[in-house]
């Protein structure tokens, strides 16, 4: 494989550790002197001292400030308050687990060293680990609590069930069996936690049975099952549950409306969306930003531009998601100029675009092939600090490449600190699109040298580049390495690219031999690729064989008739060409008319001027 040695990348500068916010800094500098004063007064009123320390620990937990928690721990160790005051120990435990992940080990050590642990201690540790993204550790502490002989409280069980929803296996079922043995089956919070676990594990049938058999149900129960149906694409069940929810007067809230609208968006159900919109107006949740965003998305995804724009205009408050959704909706509906035009009023409204906004705007500029507007979007991304986002950079690379500036695309690519496979693929495609086949192949070689595994799309792009450059030997090396080295099974698109490459290089017989070795039945795409290169080289015999196979698969595709007709005409076989033209008419095969487009952009001077 022609891979050039690559110079080692320059060392990346280390990022400085994140500083605490000004609020946390103020809290730290006011709380530490207060702790010193408390130490001086502890002999006068021990009970007041304990309450004051507890108040400081509560402030530490609320601010998630690790420095304050550590300082208070040190202040409590010297007078020995922790050993004698279970109340303070529990508050310190909560403060440590709220400061996750850096102080997780300190919290576990404190739990281990506590001379006495009550139900609050265990519940605080399990809840802190579960909420801090450490579900397995939370379950381990729950088992530790059981071995220590402490009966689990309802709070500990809720946190353990929440942790089990992120872990596979039978943990959730075992925990709920314990809930039933302990007589907590009427606790709706425990039922909701188990219901969430079933939904997250994809056990919708079990979730439905649990929901139907529940002694009590609240709005969280309905929303959990509703979200489960929407998440797992069970839109019919979601809609049925929604109608039942309204019929039984369950009182849907903002989350309910947002969930059902998102589910209807995925199902492209405009009629249902209109019905929910009517219910939303009556409910009084129309002012909820998340609900408004879901409503706009539903209309725009269904290409209801007028309704979507009206819903957006009627929103009393808009956030960055609202504006980004509107831009994405305009782009989805074939209005890229209006998508770019969203940026200006958005920034005038005081809303800073995020990485999704910039990626959407860059995609709109790529659709417009407007290098000027794309450069403005790039400039604002740099100004607002979003230029390091992988998704934004990928969109910028594609935009510059589509606008004909492969050099600018490559500059963005080289500036990226992290380059996943999609970034490499986009750059290869960008060079190939602009006729720079050698550069595209070189990027592929560099990608392999850096240890990034290409995927199916990457191989399609590099085959396209090899076809443009006539790099037959390199293409064969890449094709052979697909399955052997990278584990990517060649599909019909890959074979069609190879046939096109071999045919353009004049190796039509070799292309036919490759088709004969395809491990599955070749489709129309492969035969039309062969037919196209036969027209290029005037190979009438191979063209007829390819057309025969293509027509056997799909008789109504006009491309096959036209390619063969042009091949025969190129060989001055006018009778044969006329025969196939006539055959198109006999079979009512219609040739699609050619078209071009010119996109005017009246707002181009004000799209990004805020």
Based on the model shown, name its key terms:
elongated, 35 helices, disordered C terminus, 610 residues, disordered N terminus, mainly alpha, single chain
What's the helix and strand layout?
Blueprint: H1 22-41, H2 46-63, H3 66-77, H4 81-84, H5 86-98, H6 104-113, H7 119-131, H8 135-147, H9 154-164, H10 171-181, H11 188-200, H12 204-213, H13 219-231, H14 235-247, H15 254-267, H16 270-283, H17 289-301, H18 305-313, H19 320-332, H20 336-341, H21 343-348, H22 355-368, H23 371-383, H24 390-402, H25 406-415, H26 421-433, H27 437-449, H28 456-469, H29 472-486, H30 492-504, H31 508-516, H32 524-537, H33 540-553, H34 558-570, H35 574-586
Helix pairs in contact: 1-2, 1-3, 2-3, 2-5, 5-6, 5-7, 6-7, 7-8, 7-9, 8-9, 9-10, 9-11, 10-11, 11-12, 11-13, 12-13, 13-14, 13-15, 14-15, 15-16, 15-17, 17-18, 17-19, 18-19, 19-22, 22-23, 22-24, 23-24, 24-25, 24-26, 25-26, 26-27, 26-28, 27-28, 28-29, 28-30, 29-30, 30-31, 30-32, 31-32, ...
């Amino acid at each position: 494989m022609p891979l050039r040695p690559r110079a080692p990348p320059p060392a990346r500068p280390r990022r400085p550790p994140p500083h605490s916010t000004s609020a946390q800094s103020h809290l730290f500098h006011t709380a530490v002197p207060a702790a010193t004063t408390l130490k001086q007064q502890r002999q006068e009123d021990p009970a007041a001292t304990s309450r004051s320390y507890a108040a400081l620990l509560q402030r530490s937990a609320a601010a998630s400030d690790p420095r304050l928690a550590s300082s208070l721990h040190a202040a409590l160790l010297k007078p020995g308050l922790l050993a004698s005051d279970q109340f303070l120990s529990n508050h310190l435990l909560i403060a440590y687990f709220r400061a996750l992940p850096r102080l997780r080990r300190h919290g576990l050590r404190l739990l281990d060293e506590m001379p006495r642990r009550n139900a609050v201690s265990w519940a605080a540790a399990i809840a802190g680990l579960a909420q801090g993204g450490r579900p397995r550790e939370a379950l381990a502490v729950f088992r530790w609590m059981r071995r220590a002989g402490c009966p689990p409280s309802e709070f500990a069980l809720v946190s353990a069930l929440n942790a089990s929803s992120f872990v596979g296996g039978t943990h959730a079922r075992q925990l709920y069996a314990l809930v039933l043995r302990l007589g907590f089956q009427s606790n709706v919070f425990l039922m909701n936690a188990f219901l969430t676990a079933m939904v997250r594990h994809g056990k919708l049938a079990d979730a439905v049975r649990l929901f139907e058999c529940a002694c009590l149900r609240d709005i969280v129960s309905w929303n959990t099952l509703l979200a489960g149906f929407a998440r797992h694409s069970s839109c019919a069940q979601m809609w049925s549950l929604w109608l039942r929810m309204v019929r039984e007067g369950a009182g849907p809230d903002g989350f309910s409306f947002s969930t059902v609208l998102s589910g209807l968006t995925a199902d492209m159900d405009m009629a249902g969306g209109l019905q929910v919109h009517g219910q939303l107006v009556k409910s009084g949740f129309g002012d909820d930003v998340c609900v408004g965003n879901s409503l706009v998305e539903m209309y725009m995804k269904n290409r209801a531009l007028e309704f979507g724009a009206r819903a957006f205009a009627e929103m009393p408050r808009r956030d960055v998601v609202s504006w980004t959704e509107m831009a994405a909706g305009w782009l989805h509906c074939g209005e890229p100029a209006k998508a770019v035009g969203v940026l200006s009023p958005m920034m005038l409204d005081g809303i800073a675009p995020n990485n999704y906004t910039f990626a959407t705007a860059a995609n709109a500029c790529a659709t417009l092939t407007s290098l000027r507007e794309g450069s403005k979007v790039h400039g604002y991304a740099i100004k607002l600090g979003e230029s390091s986002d992988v998704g934004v950079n990928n969109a910028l690379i594609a935009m510059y490449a589509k606008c004909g500036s492969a050099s600018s695309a490559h500059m963005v690519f080289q500036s990226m600190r992290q380059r996943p496979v999609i970034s490499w693929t986009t750059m290869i495609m960008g060079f190939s699109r602009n006729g720079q086949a050698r550069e595209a192949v070189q990027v592929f070689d560099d990608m392999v040298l850096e240890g990034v595994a290409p995927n199916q799309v990457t191989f399609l792009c590099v085959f396209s580049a090899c076809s443009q450059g006539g790099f037959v030997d390199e293409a064969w090396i890449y094709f052979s390495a697909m399955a052997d080295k990278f584990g990517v099974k060649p599909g019909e698109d890959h074979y069609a690219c190879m046939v096109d490459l071999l045919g353009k290089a004049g190796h039509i017989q070799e292309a036919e031999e490759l088709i004969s070795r395809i491990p599955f039945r070749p489709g129309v795409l492969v035969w039309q690729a062969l037919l196209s290169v036969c027209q290029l080289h005037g190979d009438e015999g191979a063209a007829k064989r390819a057309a025969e196979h293509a027509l056997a698969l799909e008789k109504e595709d006009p491309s096959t008739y036209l390619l063969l007709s042009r091949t025969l005409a190129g060989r001055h076989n006018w009778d044969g060409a006329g025969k196939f033209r006539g055959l198109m008419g006999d079979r009512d095969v219609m040739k699609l008319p050619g078209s071009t487009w010119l996109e005017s952009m009246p707002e181009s001077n004000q799209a990004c001027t805020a």
